[in-house]
């Protein structure tokens, strides 16, 4: 091309298409489509889950011409700008600052014993979250649908979890009479707690870090605060032999509160205090003159206790009479004693332990109404001992436990108690609410020529085993797959082989020897005395089972049967759960009877647990007088 491009007109003809092409290629706004799953992932992303700031914090930084890289490199300048720049409402400012400080803490957190700078960053995060939740114009309830609030609560919970973990390592080394101390530039007030443990806590485990196998559900209560399990040391082997055991694993909810009564005061404070709350006692906590629901994890302490218990091996060693088993019954409290909650006492079966109730007790904890009104005691006993021996010892253990916690006998917890027993535990539960009268003395093969003195001593020895009356504190009982009339399975070859492996407890053997001596007549001839172990005791021909099968249950006790039905064929009366015949588990006069398709371990079925929940709710209504008198007793 020659000449002036403008005069000849060829330059404009080239520029117009080029300009149009540039304008199209350099458009300021573009659009793309995300898959729904990516949308959800993007909305949920934050510095905890992805180590990237949440979308709301990124937008806040964009307003101030900042970005995540700048804030990581020049953290102090970034947070200074976010804290003081105009153009942000307080909610956006505080939520962004909480996440920024959490990001800084996470980058420097190297393990359990974090340094002071990391501790300070977690406290800053918690304080900004606390200010956002309770000192901005809108209340938490008014922001209930805000995704930002859900994230801020998560930031707060995570920060509290890490702060309290560091404090737990640090503060016990301080004097027991301290009221405040300094840590990482903060004034830390002595924790305010209503937590009850039988001894000083040796572990404090965040519930969020625990995962369980063998539990169907994990039951939590949504609310404010971070969930922990407080662990006390085991009972010393040389400790006094009390028959009860207070819980080693206790639920705790931790809340950090900061000094100040206004937003400005909270943002300026360097004072902090831990509220350590028992979620069984506290359903809410007061913060900034506002009552807010208190969060909780009720399954975590129970699951951790079972996981660490060693019950599986210990119960087998107890059955066989080997070392490492238990020698006498214990009453295990599942939560700290509460005089205002009704008590449910659970008794496991042969060759078993509290693990028999693994999901039963947990599902009770999952029912809010039951959790508010009941506490669970589990009786753990050596299943090698004869039923008569366990019955006497369990009764003594329960009586001692009741006297210890309620010496005046006035607490709600020791009235309207309920017994729940599975298998052999069901037989024991029935006998605990039955009257023997003089009907069991026929079991004693007395010699004909015993002196009056010997007869008196013999009576004194045997009376605790052969004469008993119903527990006056109990007004309801539930029997699950209980062989009240024994089972022919106990006579089968395999059962008899197992019975041969079982050793009677040493104390029982000594007692039998003493009684045998007393049975001898003046001529030195002893009447034979045979004592069955627990397996033989469950035979449908065992003398003790035969003698006790029709003992009268107290008229003041309402009782229920839950019975398994395994591979049904023929009439119900001829069926069984694979171990216990229906005819043995059935009791006339029961307030209710439910037959559930199940093997002998019927207590673990969802249907049995639902039935037990139903019975407990009705029992609660009767105990509270909400049912008419005619419905309170069978």
UniProtKB/TrEMBL annotation:
Gene3D superfamilies: alpha/beta hydrolase. This is Esterase/lipase family protein.
């Amino acid at each position: 091309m020659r000449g002036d491009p403008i005069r000849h007109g060829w330059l404009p003809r080239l520029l117009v298409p080029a300009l149009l092409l540039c304008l199209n290629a350099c458009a300021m706004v573009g659009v793309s489509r995300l898959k729904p799953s990516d949308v959800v992932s993007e909305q949920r992303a934050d510095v905890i889950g992805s180590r990237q700031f949440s979308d709301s914090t990124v937008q806040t930084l964009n307003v101030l011409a900042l970005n995540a890289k700048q804030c990581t490199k020049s953290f102090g300048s970034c947070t200074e700008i976010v804290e003081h720049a105009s153009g942000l409402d307080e909610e956006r400012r505080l939520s962004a600052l909480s996440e920024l400080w959490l990001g800084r803490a996470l980058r420097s957190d190297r393990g359990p014993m974090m340094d002071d700078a990391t501790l300070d960053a977690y406290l800053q995060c918690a304080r900004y979250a606390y200010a956002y939740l309770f000192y901005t114009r809108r209340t938490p309830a008014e922001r209930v649908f805000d995704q930002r609030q859900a994230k801020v609560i998560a930031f707060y919970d995570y920060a509290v979890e890490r702060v309290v973990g560091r404090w737990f390592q640090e503060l016990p080394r301080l004097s027991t009479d301290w009221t405040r101390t300094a840590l990482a530039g903060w004034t830390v007030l002595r924790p305010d707690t209503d937590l009850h443990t039988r001894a000083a806590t040796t572990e404090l485990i965040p519930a969020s870090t625990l995962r369980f196998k063998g539990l169907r559900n994990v039951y939590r209560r949504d609310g404010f605060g971070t969930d922990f399990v407080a662990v006390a040391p085991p009972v010393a082997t040389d400790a006094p032999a009390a028959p009860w055991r207070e819980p080693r694993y206790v639920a705790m909810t931790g809340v950090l509160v900061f000094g100040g009564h206004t937003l400005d005061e909270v943002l300026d404070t360097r004072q902090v205090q831990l509220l350590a709350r028992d979620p069984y006692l506290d359903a809410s906590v007061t913060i900034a003159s506002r009552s807010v629901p208190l969060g909780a994890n009720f399954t975590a302490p129970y699951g951790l206790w079972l996981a660490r218990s060693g019950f599986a091996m210990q119960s087998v060693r107890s059955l066989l009479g080997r070392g490492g088993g238990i020698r006498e019954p214990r009453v295990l409290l599942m939560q700290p004693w509460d005089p205002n909650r009704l008590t449910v006492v659970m008794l496991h079966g042969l060759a078993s332990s509290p693990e028999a109730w693994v999901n039963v007790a947990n599902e009770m904890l999952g029912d809010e109404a039951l959790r508010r009104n009941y506490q669970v005691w589990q009786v753990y006993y050596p299943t090698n001992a004869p039923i008569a021996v366990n019955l006497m010892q369990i009764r003594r253990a329960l009586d001692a436990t009741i006297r210890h916690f309620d010496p005046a006998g006035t607490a709600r917890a020791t009235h309207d108690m309920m017994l729940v027993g599975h298998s052999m535990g069901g037989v024991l539960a029935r006998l605990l609410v039955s009257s023997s009268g003089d009907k069991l003395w026929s079991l004693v093969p007395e010699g004909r020529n015993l002196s009056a003195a010997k007869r008196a001593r013999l009576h004194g020895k045997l009376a605790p085993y052969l004469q008993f009356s119903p527990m006056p504190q109990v007004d309801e009982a539930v029997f699950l797959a209980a062989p009240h009339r024994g089972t022919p399975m106990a006579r089968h070859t395999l059962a008899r082989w197992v019975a041969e492996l079982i050793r009677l407890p040493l104390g029982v053997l000594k007692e039998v020897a003493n009684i045998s001596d007393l049975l001898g007549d003046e001529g030195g001839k002893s009447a034979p005395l045979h004592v069955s172990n627990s397996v033989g005791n469950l035979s449908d021909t065992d003398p003790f089972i035969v003698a006790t099968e029709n003992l009268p249950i107290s008229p003041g006790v309402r009782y229920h049967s839950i019975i398994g039905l395994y591979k049904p064929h023929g009439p119900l009366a001829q069926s069984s759960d694979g171990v216990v015949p229906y005819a043995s588990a059935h009791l006339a006069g029961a307030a209710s009877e439910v037959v559930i398709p199940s093997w002998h371990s019927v207590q673990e079925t969802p249907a049995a647990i639902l039935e037990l929940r139903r019975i407990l709710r009705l029992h609660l209504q009767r105990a509270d007088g909400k049912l008419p008198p005619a419905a309170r007793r069978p």
